[in-house]
Amino acid sequence: MASALPTWVLLHGWGSSASVWDPVRRRLTRTHQVEAPDLFEVAPDAGIDTVVDALHQRYPGPVAVCGWSLGGIYAQAWALAHPEQVRRLVLTASTPSFLRRDEWAYGMSANELETFIRFFEQDPRGTMKRFAALGVMGGREAAPEVGAHLREAGRPALARADWLRQGLQVLADADFREQAESLACPVDVVHGGLDRIIPVEVGEWLANRLPRGCLTRWDDASHVPFLARPDAFALLIDAYGDDRDV
To answer: Once rounded to an integer, what is the mean pLDDT over residues 78-86?
Structure first.
């Protein structure tokens, strides 16, 4: 007898909230359960261990996890800490290391991130607005209604500026490159070819390095591919959810 489908847990990125997933959730038609928590409400701080422990307790059964950007970093950490629980990953516009490091040219430099943090501390709202604009630049997501949706999804997060500041430190510290080959579950990487925040080469690296990784590349999408193609993204989630033998 086939096992029950795992719960899908959708993890939003930095400067956003659970509502960013609404266009995808509305399109999901299968019977599997879908959860999208506000991470700043689930965990008291943005530290990786704190967030992973909170998610592990909140969703104790088998789960499939879809993480966008910073949410994908938490998703990788969750799968590494609890491989018996996390049955599948979807990493969309995410990375094992947001910061540029030795032998890793695909990240933001430490100076650039320090400057971004300083701007955020001086003007959180304006910095988030500019970050959202950069995320959709050049891609299908540049449509005005998508930008409006991203800004609206960021409002709840803005009320937790302390959590957002901690999230930036997570982006500075996290580095899962060496653990990539330890992610044993299937990992589906969805990346936009026009991503100016996390370049598509990161998605290619992940798909090649992960033992069970594969890449879906949308050349007309930027940093928010699930909003560039919400119908196609929902179909991917539905298709992955049909795979019970993971």
So the answer is: 97
